[in-house]
Amino acid sequence: MATTAMRYHRLPLRGLAVFEAAARHGKFAGAAGELLMTQAGVSQHIAQLEADLGVELFVRRHRGVELTSAGAAFLASVEQGLKMLSDGVASARRHATEKTLHILTDIGFAAWWLMPRIAALSELMPDVEVRLITTQSNIDSQSNIDAELADFDLAVLFGHGDWPGCKSARLFAEEVYPVCSPSYLGGHTTPMAPAEVGRFRLLHLRSDGRQRWFAWDDWFTAFGDRPRAGQQDLTLNNYQLVLQAALLGQGVALGWAPLIDELIGNGSLVRLTPQPLTSARGYHIIEPLHRPRNADVATVKAWLATPSVPDALRATAFEDCEG
């Protein structure tokens, strides 16, 4: 490693740039004009480079210079190397001026609420690259916050709003309805009684560990016991699969507002009962307290809480929670 570093330190980078310019122009005077040097200075750099390499690179003629065979072979390597260096410098400069915003959320919110609106966010902030990262983790402890939110500017997560070391505001309250596709509903009419819902095939969202959201048992506890199922239920391990199964007519799912709002609005899904199951949980906008103030984060927060979201569910103020 040390030997390689020593070789890099010995590279005559200025001489290589002068050599490339002289070869391209075919004249030392042309290279001097481009590089804001004197012709004598160009000639000196070329002579030093030839001495260092131990080979003649140019044949000096009265009206200019001409590459030797060794010089022509060397030029190909120099051009390739200088191009790589130029591309690397340009990339580094782009990163220095590039504005990025990292948003963390779960797969369900990303797929069914955020992605249909991401173009509008890009139009709002055309000079900012939005990087959307999804997680399935249960982020509710200090260790999880430190691990998951350390590199993110903003998060939209489901829970009670008590994330340690963060400030949070509820964006949507938890509202859950039974939903299915029109094709699966068939000739049945809505709204229907809870007992009728229980006769359909139910689509379950599996929870690994502590239950963080409503399950069908919670729904039937609130609205009435489920009768004996008429057909075998189906259990899936993420909410995107649950909604896809419902859209494909595989059964009845619990639908979380506002994730299902557009699907209900365009007729892809049908609510089976008018009364939602609600709780104190919901989706919250979350900012780690250790992050410096960011004007782009403020813009996204305001955009998330736009009037397109029902007033009763919109975030109104942030509450600090030190944990």
From TrEMBL:
GO molecular function: DNA-binding transcription factor activity; sequence-specific DNA binding
CDD domains in the cross-refs: PBP2_GcdR_TrpI_HvrB_AmpR_like (cd08432)
Keywords, in A-Z order: DNA-binding, Transcription, Transcription regulation
Pfam families, alphabetized: HTH_1 (PF00126), LysR_substrate (PF03466)
Domain HTH lysR-type: 11-68
Family: Belongs to the LysR transcriptional regulatory family.
One GO-annotated biological process of the protein: DNA-templated transcription
InterPro entries: LysR-type_TF_proteobact-type, LysR_HTH_N, LysR_subst-bd, WH-like_DNA-bd_sf, WH_DNA-bd_sf
Name under which the protein is recorded: LysR family transcriptional regulator
UniProt keyword RNA-binding present: no
